[in-house]
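Example record used in the benchmark description.
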Amino acid sequence: MNNYFKNLRLVALSFLVLNLFTACSDDDSLDKETSAFNIKIENNSSFGSILVNQENQSMYFFAGDVKGESNCNGGCAEVWPPVIAEVDDLDLASNLNLTYFGNVTRENGEKQLTYKGWPLYYFSPESDDVLEASGAVEGDGRGGLFYVAKPDYTLFLGRQVLTEGEDAEIYLVDDYGLTLYQSANDEENVSNCTGGCANAWPIFSGQQNPVIPSTLSEDDFSMITRTDALGPQLSFKGVPLYFFASDEGIRGNVTGNGTGPFTVVAPEL
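Model output (structure tokens):
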């Protein structure tokens, strides 16, 4: 009989330990779920596809971050709070690609989330840590520098000092921040950069009906047919668009500006 009760106590103790282990495991799973940072694509009635968090709060890009570093600090960050999250903690919607996301370290050491190299921000209308309402996109176009974060931009805007001693300028870049150029030798919707020139200045193909920041006009973009086999080329206000090979695919590089007839493309906003 004593052995019977002894065995019964062992069974009860084993059951208790098992329940505790299961409870701890459930707590661990809950912690992982609550610590995950959710990002999804929301279909906005005005802007189409935009990036939002789990509270449906809109995210933004800043043209001044064209080099991939966050240049919105101090008072700027009070209006535009950075999206703070680790890439490893992301819980993405199935139509988002994790390889597009990264982190950049801010001045205070915090890890800010990036998309295609663009640091992500929220908008706080009163600069009081209170973000704009769920679904709102009131920050778009502010100062011609902040735009709602779209996952499918064809091109975007960069802003930096191009000539030492002068003010920063706004110019066209692709969705990864690579500088776009124009040539004074071209004619309206006609590229005269062929052969070796086209090797040094690869064409920007873009796409028909490009996805662009809201301060630009779709009517200013068109696809032109080239005389060579390089394919169609996107033009802006009749000016064919190019990359510069010597920029070496590095975002924010503007080594082609003022090289021969080539300059950056600075739109009037």
